[in-house]
Amino acid sequence: MNTEILWKSVLEEIKINVSKAIFQTLFQNTCLVSLQNNVATIGCPSSYIQGLIESRYYSLIKDVLDRQTKNNNSLVFTVKFTPKKTENIGPLFTPECQPPSKNLPSGLNPFYTFENFAVSSVNQLPYAAATAVAKNPGTAYNPLFLWGGVGVGKTHLMQAIAHQIIKDKPQTKIIYCVGEEFTNEIINAIRSKTTDIFKKKYRLADVLLLDDVQFIAGKTTVQEEFFHTFNALQKENKQIVLTSDRPPEEIAKLEDRLRSRFEGGLIIDIPQPDFELRTAILLIKAKQKGIDLDMKIAQIIAANIDSTRKLEGFLVRLMSEIQTKNIPLTQELVNTLLGKSLDESGKQRKQIKPNQIIEAVAQYYNLKPAQLKSSTRVKNIAFPRQILMYLLRTELGIPLMEVGNLLGGRDHTTVIHGVEKITNLLSSNEELRVDISGIKQKVNQQI
Ligand code: ADP
Ligand code: MG
């Protein structure tokens, strides 16, 4: 779909959701600079407006755009002043955006660079491999196959390679493509008998980045075509980088000959980020968004949110809260917001029963469930009890009163105190983090 028409229709929907004044001051002069590979670059007339839109209306825009495109898009904001040509009151929406002047291959997120990539012992290896490939494309490791779970930074690292190569050699032809789109492109090419154009395009690349390659599994013609492209590029020492949510041997219905091609290069997994890495990622993201996040607060957030994607969502919420209510960024605010978001994620995990968590905590500390529910305040029972309160809240989203009832009729303020204590302690206490993940493992073993 044409970006102009798409944006017009997104704005129509946004208009219904915000006040007239907000719409006119914030949205009227925005435009969709590009929408490629599910990255929507949105142009805002000034950095001030960009900040406001990004912090307050990120999820609104994303919801509307996702619905209209039936895709899961990420949003990137940029300053793009588009003065109206005439003063006439023409149609409200006349985006006059040009594609970004920087000559980036389509689909690249400008933030996904090596500079913005946090490195720790956890992801040192994939980082080193990616930088080696960026330094010597086509010769270091070919293909480079990065795999790992959601949000571990596969796309970021893959795109960082592209950014680095463009910086070093701007003339390099780089194609970045997501497996799903690659598949659609091949299918359309076959349908419209334009496979030649397709072949030419891909075989002219100096660097081919195929993100989420697992999508091509099970699609014979797509794999066939990719196999030939792969061979043609590799023969000429053109760099190929692939990402997947699992290693080649676990991609079901992947042709053996492709699998062995993938295995001929370097296969590296990116593990889930640990607490230190999440803290570092959070600090980078906060800086990008212009939020002055102090270390202690970053640690509290990172200790309580496991997923990198949720970390970013949390920052956006935090920013919105500060700006709309004009309040300072304090630990209390963070705790309140954490409580809310933990509540929500807890609600999605309803299949776990409170008793399973009570049982797991009791087992972990060699106690009986009855002791956890009793009135005793001896430390070796009271502390596991507070952990239990935290887990009942965060894992199941159980209301405070109910947590109190489950634990022998305790007052909800006692529960608040317990949950806050653990939330804050997690940021500084490695042992506690290990204990909590051990308990979670026990719970997961039960279901
Ligand atoms: P994946 O492709 O593995 O699902 P992404 O690359 O999309 O994950 O990463 C999800 C989010 O987390 C992105 O905003 C990305 O910038 C961020 N992220 C993940 N790992 C890192 C890291 N090591 N340093 C900085 N940001 C990271
Ligand atoms: Mg990805």
State the main characteristics.
447 residues; binds magnesium ion; GMP Synthetase, Chain A, domain 3; Rossmann fold; globular; five-stranded parallel beta sheet
For the record, the count of structural domains works out to 4
Bound molecules: adenosine-5'-diphosphate, magnesium ion
Query: What is the overall pLDDT average?
Result: 88
| Spatial shape | globular
| Amino- and carboxy-terminal Cα gap | 45 Å
CA gyration radius, whole angstroms: 25 Å
Report the portion of residues in β strands. 5-15%
**Contiguous runs where pLDDT drops below 50 for at least 5 residues:** 84-101
The overall strand count is: 8
Give the H and E element order.
HHEEHEHEHEHHEHEHEHHHHHHHHHH
Q: Sheet with the most strands?
A: 5 strands, parallel
CATH superfamily of the largest domain: P-loop containing nucleotide triphosphate hydrolases
Helix content bin = 55-70%
Widest beta sheet: strand line-up: 5-6-7-4-8
CATH names the topology of the largest domain as Rossmann fold
How would you briefly describe this protein structure?
With 447 residues, this protein is α/β, with parallel strands linked by helices. It contains 19 helices and 8 strands.
